[in-house]
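User: Hey, my collaborator sent me this sequence without any context and asked if I could get a structure. I don't really work with proteins. Can you help?
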Amino acid sequence: MRLATLVLPALLLTGACSVKKNMEQMQDKTIQMAETTEELQTSATETKDVLVCVSAIQKQGGGYELRSKAFERMQEADTLNLKLKEAKAYFYAFDFQIASYSDASCMNMLDIRKELAGLAVSELGKTLPEVMPSGNSWRLDATKSGSKNESLMALSATLHEINVYQGPQAEPFGLRPISMFELIAEGLLKKTSMNSGRLSADMLTPADKEVLREEQIFTHLLQLRMRTLPVIALGRVSNIQDGLLEKFGMWFFTWKPRFDELNVEQITYAATIIERALETRTLLTRLDVESKIDSKVERILKKMKTAEVREKLDSVVDAEKISALDRFDVAIAKLLEK
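Assistant: No problem. I've predicted the 3D structure and written it out in structure-token form, which is a compact way to encode the shape of the chain:
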């Protein structure tokens, strides 16, 4: 009996300690759950606020209607130049380009812009198949005619366009102007980091996620851009659009660009187009994706000679034009490098 008398209180004491410990653990978990619930509620409220702001910005900008009309006009246009004009208007009208943040009275401007950029990339990814060849087979040929192919070329060539309205609206809130080209580039470049585990999914922006969801479409679009931009530049400095005979001559014989007819700004613009092609090639190389220019265009560019044009220029009077020619020649030389 004495043993039982000693053991029973000990067991009761041990049981009481265990119960107390369990109760303390339960209390800790309850506090943690309450804190987690509060955090989730705060996060949900913040997300709701972001979506309310996004909705307000979309309504005040009218971007969707502007984009729809520009896209429709681009599809109906019968020349590449007209398609380029409407493709530029299309990219100008995305909400992240025209958002007036001050009017929406938003708190976290960076989150708002990220959301708008994600919606823009998502829309582009869903819209591109409308101008893709049937069967989703991509023809990376920037010398073929046809409305769909030229619409696709126009969209690829104008990815870099930034609406002049974007800067004044974004910069007061510490946001730099961005283009669709940058959004696509940033998303694709994060693929390697994601695959290696250096970057987790929760570190991706909404735009990054949308780019990676349509990785193949956006990669092909960049490849077509690489082939399209030199074609546009060639059209600016030559008479290749005059007909088959002109193209035949440029294909088999050396030819001189019509720089004597162009002013400094026009030559500079042609050089800028080639530089954008080089920028695209650098990106594709980093992505380990083929980045060739069209073989027919390459052959024509190799036969281009600018020396005769330079001989007619005065080093003093035509200094700015010579500088523009230098910039163009350097860009072409880099483009033709193997």
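In plain terms: The chain is about 70% helix and 0% strand. You can pass these tokens on to your collaborator as they are.
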